[in-house]
Amino acid sequence: MDRASRKIEHIEHTLKLSSIETRPFDEIKFVHQSIPNISVDEVEINTKIGELNLSSPIFINAMTGGGGEPTIRINRALSKLAKKYKMGMAVGSQMAALKNRSERRSFEVVREENPNGIIISNLGSEATVEQARAAVEMIDADALQIHLNVIQELIMPEGDRSFSGALDRIKAIVENISVPVIIKEVGFGISKEVATKLANIGVNMIDIGGYGGTNFAKIENLRREDSLELFNDWGIPTGASICEVKATQPFISVIGTGGMKTGLDIAKAISLGASAVGIAGLFLKQFHENDFEGLELTVERLHFELKMVMTALGIKKVADLRKVPIVISGETYHWLEQRGISTKNYALRILPN
């Protein structure tokens, strides 16, 4: 199967699976503040991811590209959304366009629609420095996302089977391109061990892509004749992965991706240590069902809910969510405790005056 056809299949299967409810943040609870002492009008939701300044903590995460007209339509709409709300946006893997120039249009449309916005290129860990430079140049990108998708490749019928040298290739890209590099998992989470390896080669931004959002193990199994189900429940839960990275590498900026559906989810992800959150599946589903209006209404709802939560906590700035006391229970608690990350530190935090 060619890359373009595979891209379309991924979209179709993502939409099939998007109705499956996951609640990755139910085990995270804010400590209620009865006297917040602020008004909603004082709340600001701008944030910073590494060197990138954003007007919203919501990041439109990598979805697609390289699949002909259907992906042009999706990326055009997402870019218009990013422009309207001044959000960052990552495109899907550009390898298809590097191998087939006719697919460049599905990526170039993003910069055309949003000439002054923050746009992020995307390639896999198999990419060379030359390919990374070409991907950034293609859309005049502000940063490059390198995705890690070992489990997806192993299940994918036509996927890679060798991942040797990935860390060295990432290091070479970090050292030899002119824009910041974000390392991104695609739904299986980043561990503290991997975060340390990445920090040691100069990476300072990680999108943890945790278990709880789009499940590429299940998506690829829908494309197989013989299902390989051993990885369907594989991965580090989103909340636990944010904590693993931030607790061991506090100077790394974290994007929390994986199952965000509400403003409360966003607030909890940031409180655990994320600087911003990535959303993909929710936007794709809304666009499919309600076109551009669905995207607008979704962002408006998420921003409204986030501001309500911040007001209830007495928090005026997004960064201060990371100072709010939270209580972690259930499987997330047990995961973190067994991994040597004290959950008591989160519960005993002191709110800013």
N-to-C span:
58 Å
* Structural class estimated from helices and strands: alpha/beta
What's the architecture, going by CATH? Alpha-Beta Barrel
**Total number of distinct structural domains:** 1
Classify the oligomer: single chain
Output the CATH class name. Answer: Alpha Beta
Largest sheet: 8 strands, parallel
Shape: globular
DSSP summary: helix tally: 14
What proportion of the residues is helical, as a percent range? 40-55%
Lateral strand order in the biggest sheet: 4-11-10-9-8-7-6-5
Secondary-structure element string: HEEEEHEHHEHEHHEHEHHEHEHEHH
Poorly predicted runs are none
Question: How is this structure best described in words?
Answer:
The protein is an alpha/beta fold. Helices cover 44% and strands 13% of the residues. Strand 6 (119-124), helix 5 and strand 7 (143-148) form a beta-alpha-beta unit. It is globular, with a radius of gyration of 19 Å. It starts with a helix and ends in a 6-residue tail after the last helix.
Q: Keywords, please?
A:
single chain; 353 residues; alpha/beta; TIM Barrel; two-stranded antiparallel ribbon; 14 helices; globular
Short précis:
This protein has 353 residues and is of the alpha/beta class. The chain is built from 14 helices and twelve strands.
Strand and helix map with partners:
Layout: H1 3-17, E1 28-30, E2 47-49, E3 52-54, E4 58-60, H2 69-85, E5 89-90, H3 95-99, H4 105-113, E6 119-124, H5 129-138, E7 143-148, H6 150-155, H7 166-176, E8 181-185, H8 192-200, E9 205-207, H9 216-223, H10 238-248, E10 253-257, H11 263-272, E11 276-279, H12 281-313, E12 326-328, H13 330-338, H14 344-347
Parallel strand pairs: 4-11, 5-6, 6-7, 7-8, 8-9, 9-10, 10-11
Antiparallel strand pairs: 1-12, 2-3
